[in-house]
TrEMBL record:
Keywords: Membrane, Transmembrane, Transmembrane helix
Residue intervals passing through the bilayer: 38-57, 64-83, 89-108, 120-137, 143-162
Domain of life: Bacteria
Name of protein: Integral membrane protein
Length: 187
């Protein structure tokens, strides 16, 4: 989960600092659809691989939803490969974001009684909101799509990084506590 968060943060930073083309005045900037397409494709493929690895390593009820998130990447990538205009780019990311968000909310629903399950609620909500914004923004250009996707990735990436690191620390701390309990019992 921390690796997925790190990837999302890197993607968010890339979208902020990617060079833009000036059209007319310095206030009017743009980026080509093919450039945004390539950046989003790279992010979706890497994210899909990380979620697939997380899904295969998970032995909880969340495994099915995680593997579903990996499968949702396939149509997203296919639609991005076909995207030639900003509307197609927007639709591809919007559909992927809504489906991905619904699966995140499913994970939260299954694990809402556990500690730190709110990471999935927040990430799911962010993805669904991203999808709704992109579906509603009928006149968005490629730069706007990349900006909204990058902002959403940065926000949920921070939650994933903190949540993944906290889960790992808790797991390692729990294993150390169990080892200490065994040593005390043996003595």
């Amino acid at each position: 989960m921390a690796a997925r968060g790190a990837l999302a943060i890197v993607f968010g930073i890339v979208t902020v600092f990617w060079p833009r083309e000036q059209i007319g005045s310095p206030a009017n900037l743009n980026i080509s659809v093919s450039t945004v397409d390539a950046i989003l494709l790279a992010y979706l493929v890497l994210s899909g691989l990380l979620v697939l690895l997380q899904g295969l390593a998970t032995r909880t009820d969340a495994r099915m939803a995680l593997l579903g998130q990996a499968v949702v990447v396939i149509p997203g990538v296919a639609f991005l490969l076909l995207a030639d205009v900003p509307g197609e780019l927007r639709a591809a990311i919007a559909v992927w974001a809504v489906l991905h968000g619904i699966l995140e909310l499913w994970i939260w629903r299954q694990n809402r009684d556990e500690r730190m399950s709110s990471d999935f609620l927040i990430a799911g909500g962010i993805h669904v909101i991203l999808g709704v914004i992109l579906l509603a923004g009928t006149d968005m250009n490629a730069l706007s799509v990349m900006g909204f996707a990058g902002a959403a990735a940065m926000i949920h990436g921070v939650f994933y990084m903190v949540g993944g690191y906290s889960r790992r620390s808790r797991t390692q701390g729990g294993a150390a506590d169990e080892a200490e309990d065994v040593e005390v019992d043996e003595a």
